[in-house]
Amino acid sequence: MRKKPLTILSxxxxxxxxxxxxxxxxxxxxxxxxxxxxxxxxxxxxxxxxQALHYLAQKGIVVHFxxxxxxxxxxxxxxxxxxxxxxxxxxxxxxxxGEKRMKLAKAFVWGGAKNxxxxxxxxxxxxNFSEELEELKSAEKITEIMNVEARIREKYYAxxxxxxxxxxxxxxxxRRPPRNEMNALISFLNSRLYAMIISEIYNTxxxxxxxxxxxxxxxxxxxxxxxxxxxxxxxxxxxxxxxxKQRVMRKEHFREDMNGVLxxxxxxxRVIQEYNKELSSSVKHPKLKxxxxxxxxxxxxxxxLIKHLVGLEEYKPLxxxx
Amino acid sequence: MxxxxxxxxxxxxxxxxxxxxxxxxxxxxxxxxTMEQESExxxxxxxxxEQRYAxxxxxVLIGPIRIDFIRKGDVVExxxxxxxxxxxxxxxxxxxxxxxxxxxxxxxxxxxxxxxKLNEKxxxxxxxxxxxxxxxxxxxxxxxxxxxxxxxxxxxxxxxxAYKELCWG
Lengths: 322, 169
Ligand code: SF4
Hints:
The structure holds two protein chains of two kinds. Chain A is of the alpha/beta class. Helices cover about 50% and strands about 20% of the residues of chain A.
């Protein structure tokens, strides 16, 4: 049985009776097959009993919480069962030694940029980042890398905008709170992706707190931020693009709030449905010569990082071939 | 490690086994990079084990070695249950290591490898194999203490190996 993510949008209680996990609300009590759950994403107001938490911890299931705007709040990250002292030391060494850190930080930005270029080509916009990527090569500080990254992103959004329908332009990428529909959509998806990457890291020996492009103190799971540079264009932007161009997401799926523009509940449902579909869809992996899901690609990216850290093979970020 | 029966010898049976399966796997395993929890293969082995051999003394731990089950008699019998024969050499060396270990503790034993899926058994004695075991132990030490893993080498067992995506993805 392949384990699947469980998303809870409604309000209720997660509880455990004997060896069964239940979700209960006014509609009744529904058993959940724990062996089939990979991780849990909670958007509703959900109470979790400590027994349920113990059970989830025992099964190594990460639970992610989102606030009612759909932003990531935090995760219940069970005690690690996969630990490698040696790998943690190597991870830290790659952070502490300037050259090593720069190499990885640049790799994340480079991979992200290549994937943005790939998207623009798909969307038939003429733009590339060769100039910026040249500068990236000669960057000597993390702040310089960050600057290049910011400029790439700006150019990317401007180019992408040329193809987006009126009313769904990104114009100026705004976060917390998003000021328009497209920003709301991208932010919602980014939060979800970030949480998923945390789950994948949990299932490896990588320490989620040691990162390279982002500072380890920036967020608790800063390595997930690094890895998301690669996957935001490949996963989030493509889904967002499709949703608005195919008119699955329309104006009525957003609402104004004093906090900016937000997704309605129906909007969230639509996005999550598309997101799940996308992540469980497979592509043929050229090296493994088999089909792997898009979600699995994140795990493979973690493995590539491990190989880099232990000195087996230099990390080359995923550049979407599909 | 002080409470180990042989103070200087704390290599696990699995490590000797992995030496003959794949040195890369041995390195990953001994450095805490494990994947077995995701392998159906391992679960199947456990299942077979519980079904067939319910009445024996199971999972006997002696220091670093963990024997599937033991039958006591004039000569102690060490039993190991294995899935298939693709890495027979690895199983034999693992068993040989157990016998070597037991001998150091003054226990005479022989080993029986079970292949329930093939309905076969194989008996193994230590006679003359000490040197081979010692060589293997030395090699395990060398690989474990290396700062980086040996480069993976593609072989047919890679396909059913839990590390496949790590090595080749
Ligand atoms: S995949 Fe192949 S090379 Fe890698 S650990 Fe397994 S057997 Fe060794």
